[in-house]
């Protein structure tokens, strides 16, 4: 697929096994399947509902934003915690692990582009992607992936974004992308193309955002 992509490490999906036949006793590690984006062939999901986990092992945007790094380890840590959860959903729901997008050279923009391509590919296969972070800068690649899938199908990318955060993450990006710029980047890209920008930020703290950021939020709607 690209240099930033790493296929799934299925050894992360391990845990207690109460039964090997009774689905009602299954845990996530027993239900998780591998999806290698380098080798999908003619695969296309034809079932009712399927989710694909894709990690974004990157916190370069956090570093650029002068934050505390470490989020790059998040995706695999999340997998280990999910592995032993019980399967409380219908067996019609299929779960896949597609591996990780990485950022080992500081090239955040390349990793965001790789994430966008992966999200688009997953959508084309008929699956719905769930992105595991990673820094908040994953939102840009995630959005672009859905946008590109929709525009390829001649659809207007009328995408709603809900952000639970104390910060708007609408900072200027004249010096490049970071974990604090992506929603401003999305707003600009959508506006330049005449597409809607729907952004709801829940949890905003007045003392965590400058007056300029409040003005920017008001201007972007």
From TrEMBL:
A Gene Ontology molecular function term for this protein is:
metal ion binding
Q: What's the protein here called?
A: Formimidoylglutamase
Give the source species.
Answer: Sporomusa termitida
Gene3D superfamilies the UniProt entry points to: Ureohydrolase domain
EC main group? hydrolase
**In terms of domain of life, where is this protein from?**
Bacteria
Name the PROSITE patterns for this protein.
Answer: ARGINASE_2
Instruction: Tell me the Gene Ontology biological-process terms attached to this UniProt entry.
Output: L-histidine metabolic process; putrescine biosynthetic process from arginine, via agmatine
**Pfam families hit by this protein:** Arginase
Family, as annotated: Belongs to the arginase family.
Its keywords, alphabetically, are: Histidine metabolism, Hydrolase, Manganese, Metal-binding
Which EC number applies?
3.5.3.8
UniProt-listed InterPro entries? Ureohydrolase, Ureohydrolase_dom_sf
Is Translocase one of the keywords?
Answer: no
Q: Does the keyword NADP apply?
A: no
